[in-house]
Design goal:
This protein has two helices and four strands. By secondary structure, it is an alpha+beta fold. It has one domain: Alpha-Beta Plaits. This is YfhL family 4Fe-4S dicluster ferredoxin.
Length: about 80
């Protein structure tokens, strides 16, 4: 499952530098997450760092349009890191 930043984002700049896959970027109004790069930090950390550093409660959620299994996320991690 990729993550999604909700519209209540305040653009605090906390999440972007924490993303190990560079999946977070500034969109037209708020930060956004590229679902093709988001692994929910699988392969890097135990839980998503963007959620850990976000000061807004429940601002970064599971993207209902990009549901993936843990196995799929780990496969994506391997591909992104060039380990395949």
């Amino acid at each position: 499952m990729a993550l999604l930043i909700k519209s209540k984002c305040t653009n605090c700049d906390m999440c972007e530098p924490e993303c190990p896959n560079n999946a977070i970027f500034m969109g037209e109004e708020i930060y956004e997450i590229d679902p093709n790069l988001c692994t929910e930090c699988k392969g890097h950390y135990e839980k998503p760092t963007c959620q850990s550093v976000c000061p807004i409660n429940n601002c970064i959620i599971t993207d209902p349009d990009n549901v993936e299994t843990e196995e799929q996320l780990l496969e994506k991690f391997v591909i992104i890191q060039g380990l395949a």
